[in-house]
Every structure is written in structure tokens, then in C-alpha cells.
Specification:
Structural class: alpha/beta
Distance between the termini: 22 Å
Helix content: 25-40%
Number of strands: 8
Number of domains: 1
Strand content: 5-15%
CATH topology: TIM Barrel
Number of helices: 15
Largest sheet: 8 strands, parallel
Order of helices and strands: EHHHEHEHEHHHHEHEHHEHHEH
Length: 394
């Protein structure tokens, strides 16, 4: 294993998320990239997307990430990366440039296949909200395996590659009800969403085994295949101990907003207790049999927002946060963020490291009170405000 991963996600660059860049969706009712592509003309969609990609992340960002003391970036990519699924626009050229930038500044890239056709979770970040049918479509499963193999062939021997993650956040039975998919991410087309269901662990284990075999044969031995836990951190011991795997990592995503949904008290003491009693101990347990990272986490919490966000729901979910009577002072908010940042970093270091979500986002909380408290998702802003302890401070 390389030294502890200390990284950040480049989300909303090659896979769009409306809440992170609302202006991209202006003039449409689209809540996700699928419907943005279908509501705009092909020419307008391509122009918007290409301008966004060229401006959102540049070489300068890789230089800054390295300057902050990070050693890796996790790059979410779409299933249409090779440009073979119209009306979507491929982005392999952008990824080629990212590898050159990463290698120039000494950063490693974890490639994360963030979306698949007809989605693996029904989230807006899965490409199409309220639909989760990919695992029931054998031809689309095969298509994804082909995409993964092509990625491994293209980047498997690159110096800047840390590894490849076959699919992001497949939603298994254990978390389906907690995320309340049908209500939180209401489908635009109920007919298209008909038959949506969680992904079974049986399917996921089989897919991971096939993906590993397709990827590994094209990669240098020191590269990794990274498996998301499907929101079931403790379901994988036998899979790894009985399988014939080399250089694998288990990825778990842990957000305090999810902890709140499971009853974590919305106080600083509640968060710190949860981090120490749950995150740190459970990460340490899993690290005993497989390298484990927290591939997504953030400082976001309801206490700092000043209102219960109901598991991180925003104005885009119909929530009105314009009147917040319980806002912390700037000093108290900074102290809260610093304490939960350090506690979470300590927890992830019980394993093999972490990737913060996210490097940047384009919100305007100073002018739109509905987004107050959401700017902590932006690592650059969090470092600038002194909310997040960068490695050179510690």
C-alpha cells in the first residue's frame, strides 16, 4: 500500500451534479445530467458541457491540490466517457490531460466510474434520478465491463494511476429504505423508473469479481482495484478472504448527514462521539483484513447550517432554509468544523486514508441564504476559511 491516501474528489467536473453547479441547468427543469442532455438541443448541451469542463478544473487546480499537501485525486467519470452513448458528450480527452497534470505535480489518480446506464443507485449523482435498473440489464452490465477494460488498457501502466473503481455507490438493500429513493429522488418518468430496485450483494460480488479480472490483466501490479462497500461495510470479509485478489481496497462513504439520519445527535459532542465510537472503531476492524479508505466525506452537518437538513436535503429537494434562527457565530462554526475535521481525519487514518468530497463547487451562500452552511463541501473554501487543517499545518 502506498503511504496513507490524503486526497480530494474532483466531483462535478466530468459527472455533473446540479446542486454543485446550478447555473449549468438554467433554462431547464432537469435535475440530473440525463434530462439536461435530453432537454437542451445537442449543440447547446455540448457547448455548455465543454465550456464547463474546460473551466471547472485546470492544471492550476492540480498545482493547488499538491500545494495543500494532498497526494491523490479521485475523479468521478461517466459511463459515456468514450463518447459512444449519444446524446451525451465523451470526456476522454479531459481525462488524458488530467493524467499529465497529476504526473507533473506528483499526484495519483483514482478513477471512479460514477455512473452506469439506468443507474446503480437512483441518486442524482448516478446520472438519472429515481431510476435504479442497471443490474437488471445484462447487456448494460457487459457494456460497463467493456468500459472498465478500456480504461485499464489506456491508463493501467501510467505512473499517475493509483487504481480503478468499477462502480460508485451501488445501492444495496441495507440502505435502500434509509435513502428513501422514491421520495427523495422522484423519477421524472414513472414508467421508465418502473422495476427499480436495490442491487443485491450476490450480483455485486459477481460483478466485482468479473470487473477485477477484466481490469487487473491490463494494470501494473502496484495499481489497485477499489470496491465500494454498497453501504454495507461489514459484508465483505469472506469476499476478500476467500477470493483471489491482489492489491484491492474497500471504499466506504461516511457522511455526518447520514449519521444524523441514523439518530446521531446534532451537537458537536454528538458528532465527535459518533466519529470516535463508530467511524474510527469500524474502520480499524475492517482494516484488519483489507485496506479500507473513506472515499467520500465532508464537514457538512445540520448544526452548522442552523436547521435539521433531514439527511442533507437542500432547496433542490424543496426545503426552505432561508430563515435560520439557530445559526452559529462564525467563531463557533469554525471551531465546530475544525474539531470534526480532525476527528474524522484521525478516524480515516485508522484505515488507509481518505478523499474529501469535494474540491470545489459553485454556490453563492453570501447572496442566497438557502445555501448557508453548504460551502464547507468546498475544500478550497474550507482551507481558506481555516475550517480544514491542511497537512502542512499538522
Amino acid at each position: 500500500m502506498m503511504k496513507k491516501i490524503n486526497g480530494v474528489n474532483l466531483g462535478n467536473w466530468l459527472v455533473l451534479e446540479k446542486w454543485m453547479s446550478p447555473a449549468l441547468f438554467d433554462g431547464t427543469t432537469a435535475e440530473d445530467e440525463y434530462y439536461l442532455a435530453h432537454q437542451l438541443s445537442p449543440e447547446m448541451f455540448e457547448m455548455r458541457v465543454k465550456i464547463h469542463r474546460s473551466e471547472y478544473i485546470t492544471e492550476r487546480d492540480f498545482a493547488y491540490i499538491a500545494h495543500m499537501g494532498m497526494n491523490s485525486v479521485r475523479i468521478p467519470i461517466p459511463y459515456f466517457i468514450f463518447g459512444d452513448r449519444p446524446p451525451f458528450v465523451g470526456c476522454i480527452d479531459e481525462l488524458d490531460r488530467a493524467f499529465s497534470w497529476a504526473e507533473k505535480y506528483g499526484l495519483f489518480i483514482l478513477l471512479d466510474l460514477h455512473t452506469v446506464p439506468m443507474s446503480q443507485n437512483g441518486f442524482d449523482n448516478g446520472g438519472i434520478s429515481g431510476v435504479c435498473k442497471w443490474s437488471q440489464m445484462p447487456e448494460e452490465v457487459d457494456f460497463v465491463l467493456d468500459v472498465l477494460e478500456r480504461l485499464a488498457q489506456r491508463y493501467g501502466t501510467r505512473k499517475g494511476l493509483l487504481g480503478i473503481q468499477p462502480v460508485n455507490e451501488p445501492l444495496t438493500d441495507a440502505a435502500w429504505d434509509m435513502f428513501d429513493i422514491s421520495n427523495r429522488y422522484a423519477p421524472v418518468d414513472p414508467e421508465l423508473a418502473k422495476g427499480s430496485a436495490p442491487i443485491t450483494l450476490e450480483f455485486l460480488r459477481d460483478f466485482y469479481t468479473k470487473a477485477y479480472d477484466r481490469i487487473r490483466k491490463h494494470m501494473d501490479g502496484d495499481k489497485y482495484v477499489v470496491f465500494h462497500d454498497g453501504f454495507q461495510l461489514h459484508a465483505w470479509k469472506d469476499f476478500f478472504q476467500n477470493g483471489n485478489f491482489h492489491n484491492v481496497i474497500l471504499d466506504t462513504h461516511q457522511y455526518l448527514m447520514m449519521a444524523e439520519s441514523m439518530g446521531c445527535e446534532q451537537t458537536q459532542e454528538g458528532y465527535l462521539s459518533y466519529i470516535q465510537e463508530y467511524y474510527a472503531k469500524e474502520i480499524a476492524q475492517v482494516q484488519e483484513y483489507v485496506d479500507v479508505i473513506c472515499g467520500e466525506w465532508s464537514l457538512f452537518n445540520s448544526l452548522a447550517v442552523g436547521v435539521d437538513t433531514k439527511g442533507g436535503q437542500s432547496v433542490l429537494n424543496g426545503m426552505d432554509f432561508s430563515q435560520q434562527d439557530n445559526r452559529l457565530s462564525d467563531t463557533a462554526r469554525k471551531q465546530l468544523y475544525r474539531s470534526i475535521a480532525q476527528a474524522q481525519l484521525d478516524a480515516w487514518n485508522q484505515g488507509s486514508g481518505h478523499y474529501y468530497w469535494n474540491y470545489k463547487l459553485l454556490l453563492n451562500p453570501a447572496n442566497d441564504p438557502n445555501w448557508y452552511g453548504w460551502d464547507c463541501w468546498d475544500l478550497g473554501k474550507s482551507v481558506s476559511e481555516g475550517w480544514f487543517p491542511v497537512p502542512r499545518e499538522t
